[in-house]
Design goal:
homodimer; eleven-stranded mixed sheet; Amidase signature (AS) enzymes; alpha/beta
């Protein structure tokens, strides 16, 4: 068995390496030894033009292409080279799509030259996706060694839609074993690391996209999120990421072992260099009415500026009552609240404390909903080629006390408990408007107990999974970075429980040097547009054009 | 056991009878013997004013109340008396709500007197619902003898919303055992019959509402539909009924044994005296944003006139390829097609033939999805008090070869087969626009193989359940009535299969004397508003103001 497994691993690695080797011109040598923080390396290895392009806001890139100031080929080559560099530094790519992306970019440039027009709002913008999105005529292994030879014949629907809008798929990226860690380690590709500090994880499960973003090696990555998988890696790398309400963005063509399981819904979400890029992602995909060809999607239109200037009520979840946010995160919350209290023109902002409502129970329920077959399909697939379970797979699956194989009636009961929790939370949210008939518009909360985590320690997702259970949209944005002077450990803190203790004892700021600190904005179901508008106002409060 | 069961039945019947006895003034004697067609009886038993009120369009009633020309109490009393008469003639009521509805009507009249205003668009309109909708402080048995003592403490959410909009709940009506026949017979209340011909069924499962409508004893009834249960009884009684896309209308507070089962979704739909009444039902309920308090609902807005004058493409499903529509239904299709071909001002109508696409497979899949626990919960509940299975319960459940108890993996596989069928049908629908980039706007098809059926013969629902599987909205409207001269049996027809043979051999027009003939308009998922607008255009083609 071992050698069959090794052969499969070798094949996947060879595909990756051959694809990266196509990049022209080849990359020059890297500094040796590498620093922990590699974010300054691109400036040493890439051309000034490549750095200029790849460090621009994605929407600015499309505007320049639309004005003829940049070509799609030029932009695509810049990102291909930067992604190849990211692979060398961070081990975050599973495949670069040189031939496909250059061919498409050439086609777009020719169309533009001939007509003077763009094919759509993303004309010429390179985009990347997590490996388990289907890509025409490519292998899709979904991180399973057993699926290394699984070739697919069509692009995932969301890739089709984005390419119809002018985007160019240029890279595919790493994700963890079973795609159910919020870090990124597999038997196939090893561990992906964080560009700000290679001792830290780039997050997961859309970790490769997170690392690419952190090194500015992609303008826009596409991930999935059933417990934090788009938000956690975006947050770990100081960028933007969102888990929208389920079934708004096309889902057809994701490869995974649990097809037909519907107890908790995953969603595709963007990881991006700017808030505006996420907004465009939703606005134009939803504007294309993808439900016409994918009948599981919801015909909920995207609203431009759903919040009317005037009162804006924001709840602050300082802690979920299970794991207390660590000093950098607590400080980020204060930075944002102080900024909001100083005010934003046009908005009458009211800040309220948002108490956690049974978030511990929510986590138990969520992890029970993840694997209603007790994880059998996943475990069988691993076992079929002798692929060993990595520690974080054991943590969420075989060692998770809430995972069990359901029968039909226990499954129905589980759904009723889930729905009762959702109903309770909806009522709780409505209560925030009891006195003024204006319930909270959004909540601001941590994206995780801490910042990017030490490898192997991401054992608490409930600051993100909480909103998956409720099917509420959540989006993360950068606030600050770990400050060695300000983010000292809380002296004399008495942990609330074992999980809290684990994170408290692990923490000291020097371990997390240079790590970005993000926060999360959460809205009610279908208020995806509200979340992104509120984030704009919050970023304005922080002095940023958003 | 038998006497415990009898006591429970007696209790349910006593509740019904006592509630009907409250009606004032008491009803006078009925003709003896009763004719088969009892639609002329109300004019003999009720006052001219009561007849005038109850035979008005529901929207006209609300307009008159809003102008002070009628009072809510006057209207409510008229419908209470007519519903009490319907109970005597058709056995279709489980409870009249005299005290509650008169109290509410009085309150509304006082509000109007004081302010000159209405509380909402349904101000003063009496409405009724199927028994398994929760009603505050009343018993809800969901047709199970075992649940006769099940008292609930809150109104169903949709009742709350409708009452907030000004409506008055005044009656509750019969439904079949297990609420899974498209006729209406229970151990508790016996058999409900059709006002046009008491030898025929009023349909089901929202059969009591169908019968009330057919006798003009309710302006607007609320039903549920997971296989045709709102449309079939509306069609059997020559009225309007609709099954909207799931999760648009509030569902909280329906009582049934299969909570947490999500493989196929039921939906609440209106049964009404006019198309416009259904439109108002959706427009105002959805306009109230019920998803704010019931988080399972979809934030899909209602569109006024989503179809733009110009091209309108209508597919005609002449037969589903399994059971051929009987002569009155085939004639109704021709009537409508001929009318549409004559044209409607403002619309360029194109009629295309719509071929059935594996509708037999769809029915197998649908009936497998109904009872993923093999019907155990239902059967246990029946057995708990020794309630015997009625023949149509056996037909859909214990004798149904597709019903089986699933395990988690077979359930997932079933969901994938369902989703594959949905994806196939979406693509098929899109193909109807291949040549002109204008796919069909709606389909017109039968609501059933025939008209209101002889008691115990409703053994084919697939003209309605087809659209439940796809989660497409479908709405029925009246076209004609059975014509003894025109609707003669097709001579020499060779049935396609056993089911087809059953309906073909059963048919002769004299058995179905006076039965209304309805048809169905079907649209794509979320095109509920398109369906109702298309129905308006179709009714205009038939020379009706709609």
């Amino acid at each position: 068995m071992a050698s069959a497994l090794e052969a499969l691993v070798a094949k996947a690695v060879a595909i990756r390496d051959e694809s990266c080797a196509k990049v022209e011109p080849p990359l020059g040598p890297l500094p040796d030894p590498l620093p922990l923080n590699v974010t300054s390396i691109p400036a040493m290895v890439l051309t000034a033009e490549e750095c200029y392009i790849t460090e621009s806001d994605p929407i600015v890139i499309t505007e320049k292409i639309a004005r003829g100031e940049l070509s799609a080929v030029q932009v695509t080559k810049a990102f291909l080279r930067r992604a190849a560099l990211a692979q060398k530094l961070l081990n975050c790519v599973t495949e670069l799509l040189w031939d496909r992306s250059i061919a498409r970019a050439t086609e777009l440039d020719e169309y533009y030259k001939k007509t003077g027009k763009t094919v759509g709002p993303f004309h010429g913008l390179p985009i990347s996706s997590k490996e388990h999105f289907s890509v025409k005529d490519r292998y899709v292994n979904a991180s399973f060694v057993a699926w290394v030879n699984n070739k697919v014949s069509q692009d995932a629907h969301v890739i089709q839609v984005m390419e119809n809008l002018g985007a160019i798929l240029f890279a595919r990226s790493t994700q963890p074993q079973t795609i159910m860690h919020v870090e990124t380690e597999t038997i196939l590709y090893g561990t992906s690391v964080n560009p700000y500090n290679r001792n830290l994880s780039c997050g997961g499960s859309t970790g490769g996209e997170g690392a690419l973003l952190g090194l500015n090696a992609t303008p826009l990555g596409m991930g999935t999120d059933i417990g934090g998988s788009a938000r956690w890696p975006a947050a770990s790398n100081g960028r933007y990421g969102m888990r929208p309400t389920a079934n708004r963005i096309p889902m057809r063509g994701l490869v995974g072992p649990n097809g037909g399981a519907e107890s908790i819904s995953g969603a595709i979400g963007p990881l991006a260099q700017s808030r505006r890029t996420m907004e465009y992602f939703f606005k134009y995909i939803i504007g294309s009415k993808p439900w016409i060809s994918e009948p599981g999607l919801l015909a909920v239109p995207w609203r431009e500026s759903p919040l009317t200037p005037g009162k804006l009520k924001i709840g602050i979840l300082w802690s979920d009552g299970v794991v207390k946010p660590l000093p950098p995160v607590a400080r980020a919350l204060k930075i944002v609240v102080d900024a909001l209290k100083r005010g934003v023109p046009g908005w009458d902002i009211e800040i309220i404390d948002w108490e956690a409502k049974d978030h511990a129970a929510a986590w138990r329920l969520t992890s029970e909903l993840y694997y209603t077959d007790g994880g059998e399909r996943v475990l069988d697939l691993l076992a079929s080629v002798g692929e060993e379970q990595l520690p974080l797979t054991k943590w969420i699956l075989t060692d998770n006390p809430y995972v069990k194989k359901q029968d039909i009636h226990s499954l129905w009961d589980l759904h009723m408990r889930r729905d009762a929790y959702r109903a309770m939370y909806a009522e709780y949210w409505n209560e925030s408007g009891k006195l003024d008939d204006h319930p909270a518009d959004v909540i601001i909360c941590p994206a995780a107990p801490g910042v990017a985590c030490l490898h192997g320690t991401a054992k608490y997702w409930a600051y993100t999974s909480q909103w998956n259970l409720l099917d509420y949209p959540g989006a993360v944005f950068p606030v600050t970075t770990v400050d060695q002077a300000l983010d000292t450990p809380e002296v004399g803190y008495e942990p609330m429980n074992e999980q809290d203790k684990f994170f408290y004892e692990l923490y000291s700021p020097e371990k997390y040097a240079d790590a970005p600190v993000n926060l999360q904005v959460v809205g009610r179901r279908f208020d995806d547009d509200v979340v992104l508008q509120a984030m704009k106002i919050i970023e304005n409060a922080l002095g940023r054009d958003s």
